[in-house]
Amino acid sequence: MKTYDFAIVGGGLVGSAIAYGLAKAGHRVSLLDEGDVAYRASRGNFGLVWVQGKGLEIPCYSHWSMSSASLWPSLTDELLELTGVATQHQAPGGVHLCYSRKEMELRQADLASLVKATGGQFDFTMLDHQQLREMIPEIGESVTGASWSRWDGHANPLYLLRALHAGFLRCGGTFLPGSRVHRVHQSGGSFVIERDEERVHAARVVLAAGLGNRRLATQVGLHAPLIPNRGEILVTERMRPLLNLPTTYLRQTGEGSILMGDSHEDVGFDEGTETPVLSSIAQRAVRALPALANTRVVRTWGALRVMTPDGYPLYQASLTHPGAFVACCHSGVTLAAAHAKRLAPWIAGDTLPSEIAPFTAERFDVQTVTPA
Amino acid sequence: MFKRLPLPDTSAQKSVMVYFDGQQVTARDGDTIAAALLAAGVEACRTTPVSGAPRGPYCMMGVCFECLVEVDGVPNVQGCQILVKDGMQIRSQHGARRLG
Hints:
The complex is a heterodimer. Chain A is α+β, with helices and mostly antiparallel strands. Chain A contains 8 helices and 17 strands. Chain A has helices at residues 13-24, 59-83, 101-117, 129-135, 157-170, 213-217, 275-288, 336-347, and strands at residues 3-9, 29-33, 48-49, 94-98, 125-128, 145-149, 153-154, 174-177, 183-187, 190-194, 199-207, 227-236, 250-252, 258-260, 297-307, 314-317, 324-328. By secondary structure, chain B is mainly beta. Helix content of chain B is 7%, strand content 31%. Chain B has 1 helix and 7 strands. In chain B, β5 (68-71) and β6 (74-78) form a beta hairpin. The N and C termini of chain B lie far apart (36 Å). The interface between A and B is medium-sized, with 14 and 10 residues.
């Protein structure tokens, strides 16, 4: 009977980044993937490597995102060298567009508080319309200005996923696709992962199954109260370079397509698209870049974000089932480098990165207020 | 590479004159741009945005986007989805379109 050092449940961006990090460090790792019947958040995302504005309530999240953004260049370089797959990562900074003076003031105040909360590590600049126009000549007249941060960038999430899978295999990992995990339990000193027609044995198990973690976490004494949140995306025909840095809801890919997105919909597990939502995404995009009015949209899709109740990630080791871990977040692209280079070593026994200490499930428990 | 089959209905044989990269091309009324180009022996009507490789009409039913051409100044038109019209100016689509 083969026993792996680690079994990773979930072959999306979170699971693949952890699996790659562990395999690269020399561990024997299996990566279990359900197949295309799964919700596939990692095939539907937008591709931002984004820092600005994140962590307003929990500054640790800003530090964690900045750590990942800093590690991204080395991740993309080593994946290219190892696999020949380029993630198209670029970090020209990113902008959040504002449409009124009031919006500019609120944005400035929010980001200034984030600078303070991160001890000055995060930084940003407010740009007026003219300064923004120097960066994006096609910017619409109705855009008042923007916040710009050097921390932001973007990448092609599909190439990232492919590169992580290829890198994992190059490092000797075992990819086991095409079967759903039904049950995870402990037997002797190791874990047994029951799939359709086989059992996988591993000393440690990492649940990175996206929304599937809801069902699996309780089997190893963990809690993952995740909620699906739908985002719809439109993609245009390929065009000459027009937008040379990403915005919160518009980016141009390496091939020249423009992605428009960022709807947030509470529609349960419905992965479809709705014309009114697509229409409002397109209208917002045209307001930002009026030239887009003449472009053709070639595809649209919906995908489900993996959201915790407060939107921050969940990383936790089981106390009742030592060796079991849960990892989930909705920023699998931004955090890929931190997952491969900092989360994986923790799972392998190193000390917990201090930034992620607050991200356990206890914060979702009902708090008892002691009367004064 | 392609030749036209004889049509039973001779009224459909009316010819239409279009231009491809400035050269006169005789098409038939009812042809799509892609069909007219193939019938005229044009194999490549565009180059790809990423590698610049030459491409020509392939699926003829609107899904592969290989037959992109510029039609009367409008870039990235699917040649297989538009019928020819007299005097139409069709141009090769070189790489990604410009905007505006």
